[in-house]
Design brief:
The chain contains ten helices and no strands. It has one domain. The chain is mainly α. This is Elongation of very long chain fatty acids protein. One of its GO terms (molecular function) is fatty acid elongase activity. It catalyses: a very-long-chain acyl-CoA + malonyl-CoA + H(+) = a very-long-chain 3-oxoacyl-CoA + CO2 + CoA.
Length: about 250
């Protein structure tokens, strides 16, 4: 096979046709370019730009950004549930449905919307740079943002089905809680003091979410990428039950 044919086979023919033509999904360049630009800004250009400048006061912007995130993530949770989660879709196992029926299509479109939202999430790190909060830009922070985008982009392009959307449902639910907490802490010292007791709980919720999503995606993608092309739902259910039991 020629190089062009190999590229076309793996990038286009094997992709999910329902999502491949949506914005940013068809190009192998745009999202990596956004990520590289992000890394360049937050790790090099941004700190140099702010070196001899005072931190920007972005309180109002941050408040509205948090409100946007609460609404956007709540909407994605609602869309996943209305597509069939917890009513028609099983948490433990569901055969992949690449059809154009309303439910599967809503799942696929919601996954694409989530990809777009994860790109918007990069704004958080830019805000840290402009506020000269460089100590908050840890390796883990940057790795989290970059890896999340790459993962959801890959899932949306190739496996935009109910089983891969479970992690999105959990993640967006946790983000509604997180950004509500972040918003409340911007309302002044009294509110910050009141909310301080909830910080360990928020951290614990984030860690549990991370473990659940990691285990779930690992099991699901192993089955999706199987050469057999068919799932053993009993096996998947047993694996997921074991994973959730460990959590």
């Amino acid at each position: 096979m020629k190089l062009v044919e190999i590229y076309n086979y793996y990038w286009n023919e094997k992709s999910d046709t329902r999502t491949n033509n949506l914005p940013l999904m068809g190009s192998p360049i745009i999202i990596p370019a956004i990520i590289l630009s992000y890394l360049y800004f937050v790790l090099k250009y941004g700190p140099q730009f702010m070196k001899n400048r005072k931190p920007y006061n972005l309180k109002t912007f941050i408040q509205w950004y948090n409100i946007f995130q609460i609404i956007a993530n709540a909407y994605l949770v609602q869309q996943n549930i209305s597509a069939g989660w917890f009513s028609e879709i099983s948490v433990y196992c569901e055969l992949p449905d690449y059809s154009y029926k309303p439910g599967p299509m809503k799942i696929a479109y919601t996954m694409w919307l989530t990809t777009m939202l994860k790109l918007i999430d990069l704004v958080e790190t830019v805000v840290f740079v402009l506020r000269k909060k460089q100590e908050q830009i840890s390796f883990l922070h940057v790795y989290h943002h970059v890896s999340t985008i790459l993962l959801i982009w890959f899932m949306t392009k190739y496996y935009a089905v109910s089983m891969t959307s479970f992690g999105i449902l959990i993640n967006c639910t946790v983000h509604v809680i997180m950004y509500t907490y972040y918003y409340l802490t911007t309302l002044g010292p009294n509110m910050q003091k009141m909310m301080s007791s909830y910080k360990p709980i928020i951290t614990s919720v984030q860690m549990v979410q991370f473990v659940i999503c990691t285990l779930d995606w690992h099991v699901t993608t192993r089955m999706l990428s199987s050469d057999q092309g068919l799932w053993d739902c009993e096996l998947v259910a047993e694996l997921k039950s074991s994973c959730y039991g460990l959590v």
